[in-house]
Specification:
By secondary structure, the protein is α+β, with helices and mostly antiparallel strands. Helices cover 43% and strands 15% of the residues. The strands form 5 sheets. The chain has a 5-stranded mixed sheet, sandwiched between helices. Helix 4 (57-69) crosses helix 17 and helix 5 (75-84) packs across helix 6 (86-92).
């Protein structure tokens, strides 16, 4: 027969919150593996020794971890979820009948602690990965990605208009309505003749300008530190940029995370990212793997001086444009320091290009004008020139490393490791868009996102370690230590 459920709430229940949280729940695993008492020394100097007791700083950091672990980007919604989620309450230490703190405590905590405490919290996640056996000497993978700012293009105004008007609020509103009349069409619909300024930015003429020039004229009222960026793939937008490093024995640990404006070139941040990696881990960099954007001469020189092997493809054009021959058709003879053109003519040193740090080579005067291959090489009759970097040796060494089996494997792993971190952060942990406004708050978001990724991977490594201990030792199940190992192994195995 068909059953029918009738719910009758009880006045009293004989149960505990601990019984309702599964043993294989992620938050229970994190609580078992991580001792959060390290937060108290970090936060102590930011509180007064008198007054009413505050919300426990461990509760504050655990609350933020919940939001980043489960991709809850709204702090108001986060507190609402904690109110009804038993696992969240258990993780924070709030029983059924206790009130959850207001969402404003998170805002106050960010202002109270500042960036230093959050950076040390991120460092602690790296230490936990080291304790789990994930950290060690190995290649460091570096890359950057854009993170959309919490501001729309409609918030863009000219910089001179962003200044506070020297009028009262009432007078300013009246002036706006007077200067911007609204006309009516025949059907009575409003027709606002004052189109937003951002419409002119996305127009054909302005798109020809560089992002830097556009940012000199416009600013976002919502997030003034967000910069205008335009490319063919993403269009016009307001992003920040996240620069990250991933390292470890299997490239699983996020060791550095730096937030910059959206127009900052990642190729200029390589040394800063590597410095941050060493500062957080205490492990020197021996090999760095990055994409072509980082393949500039300054990076090769700095890495060579630091004794770091660069597995970075050079960022230079060797093929020609418009069907003309590129530099790949010219052969360099190192012993004589000359180039041989496709016609076999000798191209000697002609001069230097100090700004680009290049040496210029060309044939003797009049050779190119009489050459039969001129139409493919220099159709306008000008002497053909080729250039070579001052430190071209470093570029050639990098190419040789990339052509080796080790180099090919590292480049393949780069797509999995560092780009996998970006995909994980954006799809699961809310990194696709900034949660708050201001670069220092975006920096905190990057550190917390990296922290939850590190914690999840440390838990997985601890799971594998416990399983190996269970299989190899076959210890006496009557001992308390053996019972604990088997219990944790079974719970971790069920979770995965």
């Amino acid at each position: 027969m068909m059953g029918k459920r009738v719910f009758a709430p009880k006045l009293y229940y004989q149960l505990s919150l601990d019984q309702l949280v599964p043993q294989n729940h992620l938050l229970r695993q994190i609580s078992t593996a991580v001792d959060f008492s390290f937060v108290y020394p970090l936060a102590k100097s930011h509180y007064s020794h008198t007054g009413q007791p505050s919300v426990d700083p461990v509760v504050i950091f655990k609350t933020m971890l919940i939001g980043y672990l489960y991709g809850i980007t709204s702090e108001r919604r986060l507190m609402s979820e904690i109110q009804v989620n038993l696992a969240y309450r258990w993780f924070l230490g709030y029983d059924f009948d206790e009130f959850i703190p207001d969402h404003s405590v998170l805002t106050k905590a960010r202002s109270r602690f500042g960036m230093d405490v959050f950076e040390k919290f991120f460092e602690r996640s790296i230490q936990i990965c080291a304790e789990a056996g994930l950290l060690g000497e190995g290649p460091v993978y570096v890359d950057a990605t854009h993170v959309s700012a919490a501001a729309s293009l409609e918030s863009l105004v000219k910089k001179e208009e962003a200044i506070k008007p020297p009028l009262s609020v009432k007078d300013y509103i009246q002036k706006v309505y007077k200067d911007n009349p609204v006309s009516r069409d025949e059907d009575g619909a409003a027709n606002d003749k004052t189109a937003p300024e951002y419409e002119s930015i996305v127009g054909h003429d302005t798109r020809k300008q560089s992002s830097g020039k556009t940012n000199e004229k416009y600013i976002s009222r919502t997030d003034p530190e967000a910069t205008i960026f335009h490319n063919v793939r993403g269009g016009l937008r307001l992003p920040y940029k996240a620069h990250m490093a991933v390292a470890g024995k299997k490239g699983l640990v996020v060791t550095a995370a730096i937030a910059t404006t959206g127009i900052a070139g990642e190729e200029h941040l390589l040394n800063d990212v590597l410095k941050s990696h060493t500062q957080h881990t205490g492990i020197p960099v021996k090999e760095v793997v990055a994409d072509t954007r980082y393949g500039m001469l300054a990076n090769y020189v700095s890495l060579d001086q630091a004794g770091i092997a660069a597995f970075i493809p050079p960022h230079q054009r060797t093929n020609g444009v418009n069907g003309f021959w590129g530099q790949d058709h010219f052969q360099y003879v190192q012993e004589q320091d000359i180039f041989l053109c496709p016609a076999g003519k000798v191209m000697k040193r002609f001069g230097k290009w100090p700004i680009k740090k290049r040496v210029v080579y060309r044939c003797e005067s009049g050779v190119c004008q009489t050459c039969q291959l001129r139409k493919r090489c220099t159709p306008y009759g000008n002497p053909r020139t080729v250039t070579r970097l001052f430190d071209q040796r470093l570029v050639e060494e990098a190419k040789a490393r990339l052509d080796s089996p080790v180099g090919k494997e590292l480049i393949r792993q780069r797509k999995i490791r560092i780009e996998g971190i970006f995909a994980l952060g954006k799809e699961i942990h809310g990194l696709r868009r900034t949660r708050l406004m201001g670069r220092w708050k975006v920096q905190i978001q990057l550190w917390l996102t990296a922290t939850v990724i590190n914690l999840k991977r440390a838990i997985k490594a601890l799971t594998a370690r416990l399983e190996r201990a269970d299989c190899k030792q076959n210890c006496n199940l009557s001992s308390p230590a053996a019972i604990m190992i088997v219990f944790l192994s079974l719970s971790f195995r069920t979770a995965n």
